[in-house]
Amino acid sequence: MKCGELVDDFELVDQHGAAVKLSGELANGPVVIFFFPRAFTRGCTQESCHFRDLSAEFAALGSRCLGISTDPVERQARFATSNSFDFPLLSDPDRSVAKAFGVARVRPLFNRRSTFVIGTDHRALAVIHDEMNMNKHADEALRVLRGLSDGQR
Fold first, then answer.
1. For the chain, where are the alpha helices, taking DSSP H only?
2. Cα–Cα dist 55/61, whole Å
3. CA Rg, the chain, in Å?
4. pLDDT tens readout for residues 16-42
5. Residue 97 φ then ψ, to 5°
6. Which of 2, 72, 76, 130 has the most neighbouring CB atoms within 10 Å?
7. Model pTM?
8. Which residue in 124, 70, 130, 131 sits closest to 97, CA to CA?
């Protein structure tokens, strides 16, 4: 997935077992999708908590964050509860969405740590890859959202 490309609609189950569809989320504003390798690991916890800590800023810009990993729903639920996440953590066990975004690695490796800012027109507005800087994903996504004109939100 590259900037400017259209993002196909998808539906995954969140940590509560509810279906979440990208098009439904985009009806309310831009969406920030962050793929993380595995719940409860040090880097993924740090990255996800940074998104949580900035959630009011994302909301003020009319945006919503969605975390995606291959973890099963039950593990996502424990991860969300233990860290007080106020955003959906989606389970992609067969990596179908990760493959569509180009972040799936060959098993047994986990998905690449990547973030995508998606505009309401289903276009990728930003693609952020960084395996080492856990704060970069949320910080860069906010920078992109702040730079949007009202017509693009």
1. 22-26, 42-53, 55-60, 73-83, 96-101, 136-147
2. 10
3. 14
4. 999 999 999 999 999 999 999 999 999
5. -75, -40
6. 76
7. 0.92
8. 70
